Amino acid sequence: MTALLLLAMPVPAASDCAHDDGSPISLHPDYGDGARYRGIRLLGSLRLRERSVDGQPAHGLSGLSWSAAQQRLIVVSDRGFLVHLRPHIAGGHLVGASYCAAYPLRDANGNPLRGRGRDAEGLSLRPASATSAEELLVAFEQRPRIARYSLDGRYLGELPLPTTLRSPARYVSPNRALEALTETRRFGVIVAPELPWRDAPASGVPLFSLGGPSWRFRTLDADYSGVVGMETLPDDNLLVLERRFISLLHPLIIALSRVTLPDLPGQSAGQDEIARFDTTQGWAMDNFESLARHEGNRYFMISDDNASPLQHSLLVYFEVLADDAGPPPAELPVPPFSRHRL
Using one digit for the tens of pLDDT, what is the confidence trace for 160-193? Predict the structure, then answer.
């Protein structure tokens, strides 16, 4: 009984979530809070404040998960630390947020991660059980791996990965390795690189299940789009976040797609785009990189500011609707210059 009580205790926090760290913003002049846009309903958007949290600058927020036990969003930075963020929900809408605490990710010896080994991108939370506390799965670029962590950054071990995923030579570049992951009931952990394999550039981004099968995700643009986030839907299928970026001279496009995983081996996954946000169509987008399911069909989405004064950390709350998302926008124009990857 004592052990179970200890498992249920909240993670110690140096901050108390008292600050107001989120300013409401509008993503589009025609789509305010509560508005439906294709297959989603917008439920609030914030620009997060730029400040230090327990000695860590809140930049590079690349992975996102929801802790029901802590009632906090857990965010991983590609600078190698975790941030605990409390969203403020009123009337079903996101109205504010507070940074609560930050913890460095540590190695097996208890030292903070450094250099290429700290480039964390994907995040998924395993809920507590009768014998274990909540824990995090963190996917890394540069040195491809999936590590297990406590919510305060203590190293708990690694998941065994096939050689295909461990080999840096398979990826387009070290900075385009394991980008997104989630965990499903049927197939266990599913992980994706940002871009297709180096030797199969036109085949789509692999969604690789550690439990056995894998599938291909067809991006908007074979040369400039990548998978940057994944989350599991209530029906055990996937919500995939895609980013198309070429340069500051071209539109940034963020898209959400529902991926239906087959029940039988050898079948292809279904794929349906449910929302597309294009900066040339009035959408105030930034470098969105991760998703987290909150409750029911409601999700958070966060952007990575790249520690750039020209970008911001944005937090968006939305609902995935059950009915038809409507026809997708027109096909994307092909850039009139050499075809190269992100």
Answer: 999 889 988 899 998 889 999 999 999 999 999 9
Domain that holds residue 309: 30-320
Neighbours of 73 (CB within 10 A): 23
**Number of domains forming the structure of the chain:** 1
Determine contact, residues 32/26, Cβ cutoff 8 Å.
yes
What's the pLDDT tens digit per position in 205-245? 999 999 889 999 999 998 899 999 999 999 999 999 999 98
Q: How far apart are CA 335 and CA 141, in angstroms?
A: 28
**93 and 126 Cβ atoms separated by less than 8 Å:** no
What's the CATH code of the domain at 160? Answer: 2.120.10
Strands (E), 78-141: 81-90, 93-104, 120-126, 135-140
Is residue 10 in some structural domain? no
Question: Angle at Cα 209 formed by Cα 226 and Cα 319, nearest 5°?
Answer: 60
How far, in Å, CA of 304 to CA of 309, rounded? 12
**Any domain includes 327:** no
| C-beta of residue 268 within 8 angstroms of C-beta of residue 24 | no
Q: Which residue in 51, 144, 153, 32 sits closest to 94, CA to CA?
A: 32
Q: Is residue 15 part of a domain?
A: no
How many whole angstroms separate alpha carbon 227 and alpha carbon 139?
Answer: 13
Of the candidates 114, 113, 57, 128, the one whose C-alpha atom is nearest the C-alpha of residue 306 is 57
pTM, two decimals, is: 0.90
Residue 20 lies in a domain: no
**Nearest partner of 14 among 94, 115, 83, judged by Cα:** 83
